[in-house]
Amino acid sequence: MSNPPWHILGFGVIGQLLHAGFSRSGQQCLVVSKPNQPLPAHHTVQYQNHTETFDIEVFVPGDRLIERLVVCTKSYDVTQAITAVKQALSPTAQIVIMVNGLVDSHEIAELTTGSVYWALTTEGGYRNEAHHTVHGGSGVTRLGSGSEPDWLREWQEAVPNSHWHTDIDPYRWEKLSVNAVINPLTALHQCRNGELENSELKACTQTSIDEARAVLEALGFTLQAQGFHNTCWEVIRKTGANRSSMLQDITLKRRTEISTILPPLLAVAAKHHVATPQLKNTLTAFQQRFPELC
Ligand code: KPL
After folding, report:
1. Is residue 7 within 8 Å of 32, Cβ to Cβ?
2. pLDDT at residue 1 tops 80
3. How many whole angstroms from 124 Cα to the centroid of ligand 1?
4. DSSP string covering 16-38, please?
5. Which stretch is the leader sequence (predicted)?
6. Cα of 175 to ligand 1 centre, how many Å?
7. Using CA positions, which residue lies closest to atom 10 of ligand 1?
8. pLDDT tens-digit readout, 66-113
């Protein structure tokens, strides 16, 4: 029997890069469109040395139930987006949620009888136009939790440098911390990720890294805390040419994911009595500057 097709919910930068990966590896991948937002017939991805165009096959509800769903919407939209396709989900659906920011696992568990997995990626990309994505830098993708699902090999064919973790939580918090450092600073200073290393911004980036590292330590994620300095600077360098997703949102005057990134991290810091003055200042500055995009 052939493998069930993948379905992508949320066709932004990550959704388009994933769709391209599944298509390039010969796997069927349908895109779930938003009501009143029709999708074009194809989209284009500009890689480092070449550009490729991919046909878009749109999911039609009622055709057949969704067995494999990858959700890459904005973090604040996940619950609503899954609720909107709930009727089309198979009772045994495998759902992979791949977003920035913290999403409430309990809320999602109530929406499905299938299995829910979490994925996070440091792949960088940005859009020149709605359906033209520039692959801004290769990264690492981590997935979990529990025992390896039967679709893992196919996923790894489509998404290079993907790793399975029986416990994904430490990596979810690590990624949240990376985004808490990079995204608001790049948005506030309107700079590419790599520019955080220039002399003017380096000091406050480093202080943010130190504070986020202390939060990871307080949460008991020792391995991630120990490596956090290197992890964060490595993401900054590898995605140096990239405009962070938050800077892209600000530029397009779209709601940002700040509410699912800094406040959850600061709440945990407060609970564990970890001082985070730099991160708090960043949040305040962000809220004052972009009140309508928070
Ligand atoms: O996740 C990202 C984002 O922009 O949201 C990083 C890894 C910082 C890449 O830009």
Report:
1. yes
2. no
3. 6
4. HHHHHHHHHTT--EEEEPBTTB-
5. none
6. 9
7. 244
8. 999 999 999 999 999 999 999 999 999 999 999 999 999 999 999 999
What CATH code is assigned to 6-167? 3.40.50.720
DSSP 293: G
Q: Who contacts 158 (Cβ-Cβ below 8 Å, separation ≥6)? A: 18, 21, 22, 24, 25, 27
- 153-172 average pLDDT score: 97
Cα(159)–Cα(20) distance, integer angstroms: 9
Q: Is 140 left (phi over 0), alpha (psi -120 to 50) or beta?
A: beta
Domain ranges of the chain: 6-167, 170-293
Q: What is the mean pLDDT of residues 257-262?
A: 98
Probe target for ligand 1 pocket from 133, 174, 197, 235, with the most ligand atoms within 8 Å of CB = 235
The whole-number average pLDDT for the span 38-67 is 94
Give the fold, CATH level 3, of 170-293: N-(1-d-carboxylethyl)-l-norvaline Dehydrogenase; domain 2 (1.10.1040)
60 CA distance to ligand 1 centroid (A)? 31
Pairing type for strands 124-129 and 132-137 reads: antiparallel
Nearest CA to ligand 1 atom 4: 244
* Ligand 1 pocket at CB < 6 A: 100, 122, 124, 179, 182-183, 193, 235, 239, 242, 244-245
Q: Which residue's CA lies nearest to atom 5 of ligand 1?
A: 245
Q: What is the ipTM of this complex?
A: 0.98
For 195-206, the pLDDT digits (tens) are 999 879 999 999
What pTM does this model have?
A: 0.94
Contact 216, 228 (CB under 8 A): yes
